[in-house]
């Protein structure tokens, strides 16, 4: 089991991102940044780089799944990544 502890913020060239710290079953603290957009997905066109944002980007939850056979919610706009790193 992994336990959420508290939120953490990092500054990137595109803006500030808020994620969470988690504690693994082995007691190790990790940073979790989920649902980070890495490109815009204009329909029927190649992806374009994401623009800088103002405010704090909420990266505390997974983004949408890409279309696939599943009963979970999906979206064509799924150019999202998750980043996990040690503290």
TrEMBL record:
UniProt keyword annotations, A-Z: Glycoprotein
Pfam families: COesterase
Highest taxon listed in the record's lineage: Eukaryota
All copies of domain Carboxylesterase type B, residue ranges: 8-85
PANTHER family (UniProt xref): CARBOXYLESTERASE
Protein name, per record: COesterase domain containing protein
Organism of derivation: Asbolus verrucosus
